[in-house]
Design brief:
two-stranded antiparallel sheet, mainly alpha, elongated, about 70 residues
């Protein structure tokens, strides 16, 4: 099989699994509403920036890619 096809199929499977984890685990992890996420509410405006959630997801992704790279050698 073509290596690009394998990459696309693997990426699709990873996205599906991540979507299921996000959907089912969102009840327990409470991502998007962590302490440190910025929420500003005025009369008719709500500004929301989940900075701590972004940092947590970035750190988890970096760790995951580091492990893939380490075990791939």
């Amino acid at each position: 099989m073509n290596p690009i096809a394998k990459l696309l199929i693997g990426g699709g499977v990873v996205l599906i699994v991540l979507g299921l984890i996000w959907q089912l685990g969102g009840r327990f992890l409470n991502l998007g509403r962590l302490p440190g996420d910025i929420v500003v509410e005025k009369e008719n405006v709500r500004f929301y920036f989940p900075i701590v959630t972004c940092l947590l997801i970035s750190a988890a992704g970096s760790l995951l890619f580091m492990l893939f790279r380490w075990f791939g050698k």
